[in-house]
Amino acid sequence: MAEAFIVGAVRTPVGTRKGALAAVHPADLGAHVLKEVVERTGVDPAAVEDVIMGCVSQAGPQALDLARTAWLSAGLPETTPGVTIDRQCGSSQQAVHFAAQGVLSGTQDLVMASGVENMGMVPMGANVQFAIDNGLSLFGDGWVERYGTQEISQFRGAQLMAEKWGYSREDLERYALQSHQRAAAARDAGYFDKEIAPIAGVSRDEGVRADTTLEKMAGLAPLREGWALTAAVASQISIGAGAVLIASERAVRDHGLTPLARIVQLSLVGDDPVYMLTAPIPATRRALEKAGLGIGDIDVTEINEAFAPVPLAWIEELGADPATTNPNGGAIALGHPLGATGAILMTKLVHELHRSGGRYGLQTMCEGGGQANVTVIERV
Asked: Which of 46, 49, 103, 113 has a Cα at 20 to 30 A from 180?
């Protein structure tokens, strides 16, 4: 049976919306991590058969097939094509899935999975602005017939989750504080150093607030009157890129590559698009069942902290160990550069498994439309 291996995983530091990375063109962000993976692995870049890049707001500087533009911007061979994909927040995790599936199918040997988003240069929603400006619906008649005209948004979905699982504002803020504390501790201990490729003079994640407190969070206004959600319990608007090189057994042998992890399971599930953010729960159940594993077998989990209710409900429903779930903080502290986050989380997961000596890692994230990817890997 064919195997697929992760042989390189690199990310930029995650920048804040108005930080030092705000002026870096998305193609240059992507080029930076693509080139870094090539250099760190020593692979012949001409042997890379495709570049699959996640990007959500494909408008302006992020339009025109950013994957291809980034690869060429890195000075890499013109013979390698690229394709840019959008599965909302899971775009670059889906890029990992597509790359691994190409290798597992036997049709490809080396595929680069990546993701980029500069939310300072290209605001979230820029790619739907034309519809808004021209009074066009984002949903067709069939959607309206099925779901009505109720609000469909990640913000409402997070609030609905908080209400369904009974999480108070204080519950959410305690989780958010933990995210910052874990991220600050990991950063200061140098846990991220090996996975980060510094750029534009930035070598550390910009969004971590080591000095935040529950008292400071309590002073923020809710996102909407009566809601438990505030900006403190949501992921930060961010800038970043990540890249993961997937290789077959033949490519590992022929190119003298060193596997970091083996792909164990790739799963994808859809759930209620109104709640939107709940799909990691059934998706994880399916992935574990297919992999023949239990939640207790997972040594490290990276679940995207789009909003605090997402990991809290996932932990509760799966019976997961909170200590091994986002052990080095998540997007509440480190940021969420939309299309890049999947590749960034996979990079974090691979390096944390090697640092901690764990065997199995699991990555999952909620996505627009009520979807979730789950990737299970085994450290090599």
From this structure: 113
Q: Considering 32, 97, 180, 336, which one is annotated as catalytic? A: 336
* Residues 303-315: tens digit of each pLDDT: 999 999 999 999 9
Helix/strand/coil percent split, the chain, to 5:
40, 20, 40
Question: How far is Cα 157 from Cα 308, in angstroms, rounded to an integer?
Answer: 12
260-282 pLDDT, tens digit per residue, is 999 999 999 999 999 999 999 99
| Radius of gyration from C-alpha coordinates of the chain | 19
Instruction: Tell me the torsion sign for CA atoms 158, 161, 167, 168.
Output: positive
For the question of residue 55 being annotated catalytic, the response is no
**Rama region for 243: left / alpha / beta (φ>0; ψ in -120 to 50; rest):** beta
C-beta of residue 306 within 8 angstroms of C-beta of residue 154? yes
Query: In whole numbers, what is the pLDDT of the chain averaged over residues?
Result: 98
